[in-house]
Write a structure and sequence with these properties.
Length: 318
């Protein structure tokens, strides 16, 4: 257990250092955005005196390194700042949007994970057959296309031609669960198609790696069917790499919603971030960027910890 605690602490330290580096990159990236925040706020009424006054009010006349340290200090205390465009607390603006993004990612995961595991088992069961090759071609074709292309393709087929679902994912607080799921059907399908292939390939590879083990051969010699051998013996022993790749894809789902939300005009964090960039609302962009980065790093840490817990050689290194 001391070795396990040490490994977990190392991962936590690496995660903290990564977030610190990401915070610097996000701040630097917003600093080099073209244009001036004060001029964007004032618009046509921007005179040199008014611009100077706004810059002083917002603290933009201070050195960049000092503004970064002040922003980082406030961030560590849980203060995301105030929006320049609406003058509302950013935490208040983000609360509902974050809930929408997590709902979208969760719904996509609920579809993609069982689908990927099922297809992986089927592909391993009928290895090198037409079924295996068809599943591989379809899933790899889906992952090879960018999210916006998949999204617009689904809109054209299911919203424009067949008119089964709405093209825009409009949701609000009053919607019931069924109505909300119907509204996000296309963005959920888009995200699920993008991440299913990776999890399916890992499931297939992990099962096939276990199938060469002596106890699998013994089970087959006892007369057990191949499907039963895979489900009862191979799959449980192949879960460690599968769980790891599933968690990593969940991290991608949370961060990858940005493009999908823009395509379907979904009121989530990604859409908020894109709107903030258009308005040069730098504090909102920085807050959204840090939330996405923190979620991604934390889920990667969870994947590392699960890999350690599932692997005896990592839990008890010699």
């Amino acid at each position: 257990m001391p070795s396990l605690a040490r490994l977990v602490c190392q991962r936590l330290i690496h995660g903290g250092v990564t977030l610190l580096a990401v915070s610097f990159l996000i701040f630097a990236g917003t600093e080099i955005l073209p244009g001036d925040v004060a001029e964007a706020i004032l618009g046509q009424t921007a005179t040199p005196e008014a611009v100077a006054s706004i810059r002083e009010e917002l603290g933009l006349d201070r050195p960049a390194w000092l503004r970064y340290l002040l922003w980082l200090s406030a961030l560590l205390q849980g203060d995301l700042g105030t929006s320049l465009a609406s003058r509302r607390p950013i935490a208040e603006m983000i609360a509902g949007r974050l809930e929408n993004s997590l709902f979208l990612a969760g719904a996509a995961a609920a579809v993609a994970v069982p689908l990927a595991l099922g297809l992986g088992v089927i592909a391993a069961r009928w290895r090198e057959t037409a079924i295996d090759k068809t599943i591989s071609v379809l899933t790899l074709s889906a992952i090879s296309m960018p999210e916006f292309f998949v999204g617009y393709g689904l809109i054209f087929v299911f919203a424009v031609k067949l008119m089964w679902v709405p093209s825009l994912a409009s949701v609000h607080a009053g919607l019931g669960l069924g109505e909300r799921l119907a509204a996000v059907a296309l963005p959920v399908a888009t995200l699920a198609l993008v991440v299913t292939a990776h999890m399916m390939r890992m499931t297939r590879a992990a099962i096939l790696a276990v199938m060469t083990s002596p106890y699998i051969e013994m089970a087959e010699l006892k007369g057990l069917g191949r499907t039963r051998v895979i489900l009862r013996h191979a799959l449980p022993n192949a879960l460690a790499p599968i769980v790891n790749v599933v968690v990593l894809n969940l991290a991608y789902l949370v961060v990858g919603v940005v493009v999908v939300e823009v395509v379907f005009v979904y009121p989530g964090m990604g859409q908020l971030m894109v709107d903030a960039v258009a308005k040069r609302d730098v504090p909102v962009v920085q807050a959204c960027g840090m939330i996405f980065a923190s979620t991604y790093v934390l889920l990667n840490l969870a994947a590392d910890v699960l890999a350690i817990l599932a692997n005896p050689r990592l839990r008890h290194p010699r």
